[in-house]
Please model this.
Amino acid sequence: MTERSPKQKIELNILKINKMRYLNITFPDVNNGLGCRVSLWVSGCTHHCKYCHNKNSWNFENGKIFDEYAELKLFNYVSLDYIKGITLTGGDPLDSYEDIIKLLHNFREKFGNKKDIWLYTGYYMSDIKEKFSKILELVDYIVDGPFEMDKKDTTLPFRGSSNQNIYKKVENNNFECITNI
Model:
């Protein structure tokens, strides 16, 4: 690997601070939430689950910069009548928290509550409430917790291990854990 110049290092740090990257936008997606969806695969994850199914998503520098053109593409897909909503996955979207908040504000401005938002994260709900509370105003479903191989359960809908939970927003930004989905 070639050594980066000081200018390149600064530019890279600016990108990390101001622009998240993404690996892919999958459309249509029926595997990552209820209904036919559009999924945004965000680059960067600090959890590094041992048996992660998507290790290439760990690196914050992988993929493309999520710019206004990527947002337009994403929103154009979501605008289709048969699309139920958007799913944020990755990587861990909460490891790009500020950019995700901006994206979701734009999403809600455009779609209101006509389309739903699913969030997959390796953080547990207790951490989300403590460290990422703004996200609770914007999302409708949260699948929390890291993947744990010793708790792997392929019979669970929309998650890989039994330590992971699905939370649904009920009212006033409160969420309840749901088992039947």
User: Anything to note?
Assistant: The first strand starts at residue 21 and ends at 29.
